[in-house]
What we know:
This protein is 46% helix and 20% strand. It contains 6 helices and 7 strands; from the N terminus they run ααβαββαββααββ. It has helices at 2-37, 43-74, 86-94, 125-142, 177-180, 198-208, and strands spanning 82-84, 110-113, 121-123, 151-158, 163-170, 212-220, 223-234. The strands form 2 sheets. The chain has a 5-stranded mixed β-sheet. Strands 1-3 form a two-stranded antiparallel sheet. A hairpin with a 2-residue loop joins strand 6 (212-220) and strand 7 (223-234). The longest helix has 36 residues, at 2-37.
Amino acid sequence: SAQRAQAWGEVARRLAHEIKNPLTPIQLSAERLEMKLTGKVAEPEQAMLVKSVKTIVDQVDAMKRLVNEFRDYARLPAAELKPVDLNALVADVLQLYLGEGGDSVAGVPVHMALDAACPPILGDAQQLRQVIHNLLQNAQDATEGCPVREVTVKTQWNPTSRRVRLAVQDSGTGFPEHILKRAFEPYVTTKAKGTGLGLAVVKKIADEHGARIDLSNRVTDGTVRGAQVSLSFAVAA
Protein backbone atom coordinates (compact mmCIF):
# COMPACT_ATOMS: atom_id res chain seq x y z
CA SER A 1 0.00 0.00 0.00
CA ALA A 2 2.82 2.40 0.88
CA GLN A 3 4.64 1.59 -2.37
CA ARG A 4 1.48 2.18 -4.40
CA ALA A 5 0.91 5.50 -2.64
CA GLN A 6 4.48 6.55 -3.39
CA ALA A 7 4.14 5.56 -7.05
CA TRP A 8 0.84 7.43 -7.43
CA GLY A 9 2.41 10.45 -5.75
CA GLU A 10 5.15 10.52 -8.37
CA VAL A 11 2.61 10.24 -11.19
CA ALA A 12 0.55 13.06 -9.64
CA ARG A 13 3.62 15.27 -9.24
CA ARG A 14 4.62 14.89 -12.89
CA LEU A 15 1.10 15.42 -14.19
CA ALA A 16 0.63 18.54 -12.07
CA HIS A 17 3.85 20.01 -13.44
CA GLU A 18 3.10 19.20 -17.09
CA ILE A 19 -0.53 20.36 -16.97
CA LYS A 20 0.03 23.57 -15.02
CA ASN A 21 2.57 25.18 -17.33
CA PRO A 22 0.27 25.91 -20.31
CA LEU A 23 -2.84 26.90 -18.32
CA THR A 24 -2.04 30.55 -17.60
CA PRO A 25 -0.97 31.38 -21.21
CA ILE A 26 -4.18 29.77 -22.49
CA GLN A 27 -6.35 31.87 -20.18
CA LEU A 28 -4.44 35.11 -20.78
CA SER A 29 -4.54 34.63 -24.56
CA ALA A 30 -8.30 34.06 -24.54
CA GLU A 31 -8.90 37.12 -22.36
CA ARG A 32 -6.59 39.24 -24.54
CA LEU A 33 -8.47 38.20 -27.67
CA GLU A 34 -11.77 39.21 -26.10
CA MET A 35 -10.36 42.56 -25.01
CA LYS A 36 -8.89 43.34 -28.47
CA LEU A 37 -11.95 42.28 -30.45
CA THR A 38 -14.72 43.64 -28.23
CA GLY A 39 -16.54 46.44 -30.09
CA LYS A 40 -14.84 45.57 -33.39
CA VAL A 41 -17.12 42.73 -34.47
CA ALA A 42 -20.85 42.48 -35.18
CA GLU A 43 -23.23 41.59 -32.35
CA PRO A 44 -23.69 37.88 -33.24
CA GLU A 45 -19.92 37.39 -33.39
CA GLN A 46 -19.51 39.42 -30.17
CA ALA A 47 -21.90 37.11 -28.33
CA MET A 48 -20.04 34.08 -29.65
CA LEU A 49 -16.72 35.64 -28.63
CA VAL A 50 -17.88 36.28 -25.05
CA LYS A 51 -19.36 32.79 -24.75
CA SER A 52 -16.25 31.09 -26.17
CA VAL A 53 -13.85 33.02 -23.91
CA LYS A 54 -16.02 32.19 -20.88
CA THR A 55 -15.89 28.50 -21.82
CA ILE A 56 -12.10 28.62 -22.13
CA VAL A 57 -11.66 30.43 -18.80
CA ASP A 58 -14.08 28.11 -17.00
CA GLN A 59 -12.34 25.01 -18.33
CA VAL A 60 -8.91 26.41 -17.41
CA ASP A 61 -10.21 26.96 -13.87
CA ALA A 62 -11.41 23.35 -13.80
CA MET A 63 -7.97 22.20 -14.91
CA LYS A 64 -6.34 24.34 -12.22
CA ARG A 65 -8.50 22.65 -9.58
CA LEU A 66 -7.44 19.31 -11.01
CA VAL A 67 -3.78 20.32 -10.82
CA ASN A 68 -4.23 21.46 -7.22
CA GLU A 69 -5.62 18.04 -6.31
CA PHE A 70 -2.61 16.38 -7.93
CA ARG A 71 -0.28 18.78 -6.11
CA ASP A 72 -1.97 18.23 -2.74
CA TYR A 73 -1.66 14.48 -3.08
CA ALA A 74 1.95 14.50 -4.31
CA ARG A 75 3.30 17.13 -1.93
CA LEU A 76 1.44 16.42 1.26
CA PRO A 77 3.96 17.32 3.97
CA ALA A 78 4.60 15.26 7.09
CA ALA A 79 2.02 15.98 9.77
CA GLU A 80 3.08 18.14 12.74
CA LEU A 81 1.06 16.61 15.55
CA LYS A 82 -0.08 18.94 18.33
CA PRO A 83 -3.11 19.05 20.64
CA VAL A 84 -6.16 20.07 18.57
CA ASP A 85 -9.75 20.78 19.67
CA LEU A 86 -11.53 18.76 16.95
CA ASN A 87 -14.97 20.18 17.79
CA ALA A 88 -13.74 23.76 17.42
CA LEU A 89 -11.97 22.88 14.17
CA VAL A 90 -15.10 21.24 12.70
CA ALA A 91 -17.27 24.21 13.72
CA ASP A 92 -14.77 26.63 12.20
CA VAL A 93 -14.61 24.78 8.87
CA LEU A 94 -18.39 24.41 8.69
CA GLN A 95 -18.83 28.17 8.93
CA LEU A 96 -17.60 28.25 5.33
CA TYR A 97 -20.36 25.83 4.30
CA LEU A 98 -23.30 27.03 6.33
CA GLY A 99 -25.56 29.82 5.13
CA GLU A 100 -28.64 31.33 6.67
CA GLY A 101 -30.96 28.74 8.13
CA GLY A 102 -28.15 26.19 8.36
CA ASP A 103 -28.12 25.40 4.63
CA SER A 104 -24.79 25.00 2.92
CA VAL A 105 -23.66 27.16 0.05
CA ALA A 106 -24.45 24.25 -2.29
CA GLY A 107 -27.99 24.03 -0.98
CA VAL A 108 -27.33 20.87 1.00
CA PRO A 109 -28.23 21.13 4.71
CA VAL A 110 -25.24 20.33 6.92
CA HIS A 111 -25.94 19.22 10.48
CA MET A 112 -23.43 19.14 13.35
CA ALA A 113 -23.60 16.63 16.18
CA LEU A 114 -20.52 17.36 18.27
CA ASP A 115 -19.78 15.48 21.47
CA ALA A 116 -18.86 18.09 24.09
CA ALA A 117 -16.95 15.44 26.05
CA CYS A 118 -14.27 15.09 23.32
CA PRO A 119 -10.79 15.84 24.68
CA PRO A 120 -8.09 17.37 22.45
CA ILE A 121 -6.62 14.98 19.86
CA LEU A 122 -3.11 14.76 18.46
CA GLY A 123 -3.34 16.28 15.01
CA ASP A 124 -2.12 18.70 12.38
CA ALA A 125 -4.85 21.38 12.23
CA GLN A 126 -4.11 22.37 8.63
CA GLN A 127 -4.24 18.81 7.35
CA LEU A 128 -7.37 18.05 9.38
CA ARG A 129 -9.06 21.06 7.78
CA GLN A 130 -8.32 19.50 4.42
CA VAL A 131 -9.80 16.19 5.59
CA ILE A 132 -13.02 17.88 6.68
CA HIS A 133 -13.25 19.88 3.44
CA ASN A 134 -12.68 16.80 1.29
CA LEU A 135 -15.23 14.69 3.18
CA LEU A 136 -17.85 17.45 3.13
CA GLN A 137 -17.36 18.03 -0.59
CA ASN A 138 -17.64 14.31 -1.31
CA ALA A 139 -20.74 14.02 0.87
CA GLN A 140 -22.42 16.96 -0.83
CA ASP A 141 -21.60 15.58 -4.28
CA ALA A 142 -22.96 12.15 -3.29
CA THR A 143 -26.42 13.60 -2.61
CA GLU A 144 -26.78 15.18 -6.05
CA GLY A 145 -30.03 14.08 -7.70
CA CYS A 146 -31.31 12.43 -4.50
CA PRO A 147 -34.80 13.23 -3.13
CA VAL A 148 -33.27 13.98 0.28
CA ARG A 149 -30.03 15.96 0.36
CA GLU A 150 -28.35 16.32 3.73
CA VAL A 151 -24.97 15.85 5.37
CA THR A 152 -24.18 15.23 9.04
CA VAL A 153 -20.83 15.74 10.75
CA LYS A 154 -20.39 13.97 14.08
CA THR A 155 -17.73 13.68 16.75
CA GLN A 156 -17.76 11.11 19.53
CA TRP A 157 -15.53 10.42 22.51
CA ASN A 158 -14.99 6.78 23.45
CA PRO A 159 -13.49 6.69 26.97
CA THR A 160 -12.88 2.93 26.76
CA SER A 161 -10.61 3.08 23.71
CA ARG A 162 -9.53 6.64 24.55
CA ARG A 163 -10.09 7.74 20.98
CA VAL A 164 -12.13 10.49 19.35
CA ARG A 165 -14.16 9.62 16.28
CA LEU A 166 -15.00 11.99 13.44
CA ALA A 167 -17.74 10.83 11.05
CA VAL A 168 -19.25 12.44 7.95
CA GLN A 169 -22.54 10.95 6.75
CA ASP A 170 -24.55 11.67 3.61
CA SER A 171 -28.00 10.78 2.28
CA GLY A 172 -26.78 9.67 -1.14
CA THR A 173 -26.95 6.34 -2.95
CA GLY A 174 -23.94 4.85 -1.14
CA PHE A 175 -20.86 3.23 -2.60
CA PRO A 176 -20.98 0.34 -5.09
CA GLU A 177 -19.37 -2.82 -3.69
CA HIS A 178 -16.36 -2.64 -6.00
CA ILE A 179 -15.69 0.98 -4.95
CA LEU A 180 -15.96 0.15 -1.24
CA LYS A 181 -12.94 -2.13 -1.55
CA ARG A 182 -10.78 0.40 -3.40
CA ALA A 183 -12.17 3.83 -2.45
CA PHE A 184 -8.93 5.04 -0.86
CA GLU A 185 -6.82 4.31 -3.93
CA PRO A 186 -5.98 7.31 -6.13
CA TYR A 187 -8.14 7.85 -9.22
CA VAL A 188 -10.91 5.52 -8.04
CA THR A 189 -14.20 7.44 -8.19
CA THR A 190 -17.88 7.15 -9.04
CA LYS A 191 -18.07 10.78 -10.20
CA ALA A 192 -18.31 11.76 -13.84
CA LYS A 193 -15.98 14.66 -12.97
CA GLY A 194 -13.06 14.64 -10.57
CA THR A 195 -9.85 12.73 -10.06
CA GLY A 196 -10.79 10.37 -7.26
CA LEU A 197 -7.99 11.92 -5.20
CA GLY A 198 -10.20 13.31 -2.42
CA LEU A 199 -10.41 10.11 -0.36
CA ALA A 200 -6.84 9.16 -1.26
CA VAL A 201 -5.65 12.43 0.33
CA VAL A 202 -7.84 11.73 3.38
CA LYS A 203 -6.29 8.25 3.69
CA LYS A 204 -2.79 9.65 3.38
CA ILE A 205 -3.47 12.21 6.13
CA ALA A 206 -5.10 9.55 8.32
CA ASP A 207 -1.98 7.39 8.01
CA GLU A 208 0.19 10.37 9.01
CA HIS A 209 -1.96 10.76 12.13
CA GLY A 210 -2.02 7.07 13.00
CA ALA A 211 -5.81 7.34 12.66
CA ARG A 212 -8.08 4.40 11.90
CA ILE A 213 -10.26 5.13 8.87
CA ASP A 214 -13.41 3.34 7.82
CA LEU A 215 -15.79 3.72 4.91
CA SER A 216 -19.21 2.08 4.81
CA ASN A 217 -22.74 2.34 3.49
CA ARG A 218 -25.55 3.23 5.90
CA VAL A 219 -28.19 0.51 5.57
CA THR A 220 -31.68 0.59 7.11
CA ASP A 221 -34.13 -2.29 6.59
CA GLY A 222 -31.95 -3.62 3.80
CA THR A 223 -31.93 -0.31 1.92
CA VAL A 224 -28.84 1.86 1.48
CA ARG A 225 -29.56 5.30 2.98
CA GLY A 226 -26.21 6.88 2.23
CA ALA A 227 -22.53 6.52 3.07
CA GLN A 228 -20.27 7.28 6.02
CA VAL A 229 -16.55 7.93 6.33
CA SER A 230 -15.12 7.95 9.84
CA LEU A 231 -11.70 8.51 11.37
CA SER A 232 -10.64 7.56 14.89
CA PHE A 233 -7.89 9.65 16.49
CA ALA A 234 -5.68 9.21 19.52
CA VAL A 235 -6.05 11.86 22.20
CA ALA A 236 -3.33 14.24 23.28
CA ALA A 237 -1.51 13.12 26.40
